[in-house]
Amino acid sequence: MQTSSDRHEYPAHWEADVVLRDGGTARIRPITIDDADRLVSFYEQVSAESKYYRFFAPYPRLSAKDVHRFTHHDFVDRVGLAATVGGEFIATVRYDRINADGLPASAPADEAEVAFLVQDAHQGRGVASALLEHIAAVARERGIRRFAAEVLPANTKMIKVFTDAGYQQKRHFEDGVVRLEFDLEPTDRSLAVQRAREQRAEARSVQRLLAPGSVVVIGAGRTPGGVGRSVLTNLRDAGFTGRLYAVNKALHEKELDGVPAHRCVRDIDEPVDLAVVAVPAPLVPEVVAECGEHGVQGLVVVSAGYAESGPEGRERQSELVRQARTYGMRIIGPNAFGVINTSPEVRLNASLAPQMPRPGRIGLFAQSGAIGIALLSRLHRRGGGVTGVTGVSTFVSSGNRADVSGNDVLQYWYDDPDTDVALMYLESIGNPRKFTRLARRTAAAKPLVVVQGARHGGAAPQGHAVRATRLPHATVSALLRQAGVIRVDTITELVDAGLLLARQPLPPGPRVAILGNSESLGLLTYDACLAEGLRPLPPLDLTTGASAEDFHGALVRALTDDKCDAVVVTAIPAVGETSAQDAALAEALRSAAASVPAKPVLVVHVELGGLAEALSAAASTAPQIGSTAPGAARPPFSAAHERRDPHRPAERLPTAGAARPAVAGAAQPPLAEATRRPVPEDPPTASRLIPAYPAAERAVRALAQAVKYAQWRRDAAEPGKVPEYEDIDEKGAAEQIDGLLARGEGLTLGAEETCGLLGRYGIDVRRALPAPTPDHAVAAARALGYPVALKTTAPHLRHRADLGGVRLDLADEEQLRRAYAELTELFGKPEELRPVVQAMAPRGVDTVVRAVIDPAAGAVLSFGLAGAASELLGDTAHRLIPVTDRDATSLVRSIRTAPLLFGWRGSAPVDTAALEELMLRVSRLVHDHPEVVAVSLEPVVVAPRGLSVLGATVRLARAPVRDDLGPRTLPVV
After folding, report:
1. Taking Cα atoms as reference points, which of 627, 542, 621 lies closest to residue 585?
2. Alpha-carbon gap, residue 174 to 79, rounded angstroms
3. Cβ atoms 186, 168 nearer than 8 A
4. Which of 317, 331, 329, 356 is nearest to 231 (CA)?
5. One-character DSSP codes across 849-916
6. What are 136-160's pLDDT values in tens digits?
7. 0.85 exceeded by the pTM?
8. What angle do CA 14, 17, 19 make, to 5 degrees?
9. DSSP code of 120?
10. CA 11/CA 15 separation, integer angstroms
């Protein structure tokens, strides 16, 4: 630890774990006087060339003076950070504050010279880039605004670190040295660079867990059964393509079911990428140490006995993560169900699932092992029996989610060419702000469907360490939908939506054609469409005698109709149905859908197992259940097509998941053949899968979700803008806020201060003058001008006109005095009621605009109509700040009571443009000044022309830390 003679105590909050470019982790922390031996050892492992680049001369060893200088810091003007793995330095960075002449200085000098040194063995891992982000954040905290660095021209790697960081830079060449100067204020480009690096690093860290070249199962017992032995068996039976080992201290055998066996990881002669840990929790630390020393890259910990078991287990879990990160390893778990990768190049089933799921293009993430089993089971059952082969690309069950979380898996899926649709079961969201950001980016490329458990429990499940949020679940759900997430309520809906989105195109609109051989089923479907906000066309009844040719013709006509965006086909069994009839109908639907591939087709079937199997046969390469009826032709898209000509050209059909990040490539392999290498595609006559549902409500609900998501994709393609207003006084507002906060923390502003601050952002609040006596009320009315309103501002009566605490349109002194007497007689003494007088505003619709900074979700803008009815119904809409002009427009229209703003029942429409501008100004205020932690404008009376803000409150506090703007870090454990 630093000595007392240093100017500042050790800044523990600078410590952080980071993910590097290759997916490994490192610890970044301040360098102290206790690091002298580590520094010397580190320097001895640096090549002569790297030392030359650092000191511009041969420098074989550090002197005692050098060691003292590089380990003694005041953490203000002189700061050093080290990146460590296994407790040893792998890289260092330091800055020294300098003045305009380049000499050592103290504040208020705001420039510093920065220098790096990275061990040669760790160069190319992105260590210097991570250190630059952290040292820049430290410098900003200490009042440094600019870095200068001198680099030899031959040191191109270090020059690239600086130039690629995204900061505004100046470059000079003097005396054979490149001098770089750059401001440390984050820019849009530097944030984009930082987040792109974060995505690549975190995606790579997950890829190392899902595509290992070798796996060891630690804790595999001699006898069948038990967790470790089960995982080993599942890995072996799945045909894992890499090297597989078993480890158990009690083993004396050289093999276990044909798998090489050892007593400890150190006995394995070859590198190991992934370790599955299935030993009792007290033995795990020893196992983790062995794995770290052997160079294992990642762990799947299926062992229980951690945070889910109570405080002692929670501490054990934190220590597990700290220990693993020390060695640069990431963890799935503990208490995890496991991971699966169906790629033929990997075939990894490092889980407790006894059967490998079908390969496919759906990614699954579940925080619960039980829900993970249910999802795999349902996709296996429906993916092969009803909709054709719609299988899984990768599956992660994270258990307690102590390290690898849904955010990390989203980073992986974002540019994973084998995943078209992402399905997630979440019981908690550890970092909602980051999850929302990643979800928005992912949803722009491929559908993301989420069901959240534990919505109404009021607390995170045992074992999940998450940030507290004050936002209700409905608000969090609304923010996720704003980010493009398809929110569903049950795992049944999760699978229903996933099956539709996996291989059907997104609907171009909400108009739905309905056709089938049952009038009643068609009407049920029609009603379901209306209930889900779709626009169904009148159902077409083909009658129960309809043939396959009738279905084909009707479906083609519906799909080619410009008034139709999607088609729901309803079918009931025919009397004396045969497998041949089922196959004929399935082929008719398939060929009709293939003729117009731009619109989705869904089937609602009632107890029609034959058709379900036929649809599977007509649109998949799955082995068929049973045999084709005598005399019936083999369905043209059965397993026989696996023997097709691999060089035959393929016709690609657009699907919901077809959009790709630029790095992913364009063409996608067929659903039944998920693989990481280029593969032959389906022949021209192949079909996209047609999902079938046992109930009209389920089919329509899935379609409605697809319609909303498609509209979000269209809107996201043309994002709005955050407008600039010339009358905003941002500098004046900042000075006023600083002055107010000097009085103390957690400050609720008074009326004059509130009006003054809001006024700097062009938000005018109507004056309300206090009226402690009738005479004061009369004087206030004369100052404001009649007519006036008399209101009580007591907390229990505030904004409660329904309780009678407001008197409006008081035209003269007599009416005002009478109203004053009535209020005091009904509700109590003036000192209790706190009455005020306010000039009357033009008549309109009363609304409420609020903004709040939530510690977990960030800044949120909310809007709704004023009054008990809206509060009772929870009719409030939300958007993340900063709000764009498009966000404001949609916010006004997204509440259920929005028709009242647009001329409902013959009333005059109100000035929604003025309302949108008000919300944009509130958004700017909160975004520009994070010290404004809460704003409430209530009521805001929106008239046919203009609006009036009749009440306002503002709360200030010191700006909370924005981790999404700081350097990359893993969550603190």
Report:
1. 542
2. 26
3. no
4. 356
5. EEEEEETTTEEEEEEEE-SHHHHHHT-EEEEESSPPHHHHHHHHHSSTTGGGGTTGGGPPPP-HHHHH
6. 999 999 999 999 999 999 999 999 9
7. no
8. 135
9. G
10. 8
